[in-house]
Design goal:
6 helices, 90 residues, disordered N terminus, mainly alpha, Non-ribosomal Peptide Synthetase Peptidyl Carrier Protein, Chain A, single chain
């Protein structure tokens, strides 16, 4: 079970680096090509399954819940980080 105190103390940079590492591993990329401005579909060529996997990872890791509608509105890595921070994961 995750420690809520740990999750609430995460900074923007920490959340970004965890998402960056996940994407780099999932998409077989170098982490340094992923920035907060990176767009999932256009820049990373992530497909629906990749994005679904990322949503699951965010929910499992940070304890946030994301509807399909919310997920569809998140187009960049930075927006994903902001979502996690705004919804109790950071």
């Amino acid at each position: 079970m995750s420690d809520p105190a740990k999750a609430t103390s995460m900074t923007h940079d920490q959340v970004f680096h965890l998402i960056q590492a996940h994407l780099a591993d999932e998409l077989d990329l170098e982490p340094n090509v992923i920035s907060v401005q990176t767009r999932f579909r256009e820049d990373l060529e992530a497909d629906s399954l990749d994005l679904y996997t990322l949503v699951q990872e965010l929910e499992d890791t940070y304890g946030v819940r994301m509807s399909d509608e919310q997920a569809a509105e998140i187009l960049t890595v930075g927006q994903a980080v902001d979502f996690v921070l705004a919804h109790g994961g950071g």
